[in-house]
Predict the 3D structure of the following.
Amino acid sequence: MIEGRLFVVSAPSGAGKTTLLKRLMARVPRLVFSVSHTTREPRAGEKDGVDYHFISADTFHRMADKGLFLEYAEVHDNFYGTSQKSVLQQLRRGHDVVLDIDVQGASIVRQSAILQGVHIFIAPPSLAELEKRLRGRKTESEAHLAVRLKNAVIEMQAACKYDYLVVNDDLDETIGLLV
Ligand code: 5GP
């Protein structure tokens, strides 16, 4: 039996979602973060099994073919997926599980017959602020930055499908809203 609740959180890259979720998880012990699988290269400081399970494209597609993902999607030229087994295990143990996934993945979960969740969209105060935050991160090349900004415009259009829309202007204020 499923006892925990599922929270699906999406945001355009640079909206501050990762920092927000890390702070939120630290404050709310019953929340468990679902560690996704990805074909993306680890960024400096990222740990395998903590931030993501970093896997090859071959392994990813084999897992997808076996139906091991609750959802998966290609985002910014890389593949990302959520392990169905791991999410169900945590929910059955009574944990509340947070999925940090893109709008395509969230749409798949919304249509899932297996699980229903609370869907939250985190938006930046403006696209100009989003670009400023992405540039400040200094993790992307100019080409990757352009892809992320272009995708941000598309992702923002999906915000109306979510149960909650939260504008992340001031981090502390946003955390206060979510707790
Ligand atoms: P990043 O490469 O910046 O860590 O993540 C890029 C995007 O991929 C973010 O929007 C993030 O929410 C999304 N993402 C991370 N894990 C998953 C996943 O398992 N499935 C889907 N669909 N998107 C994911």
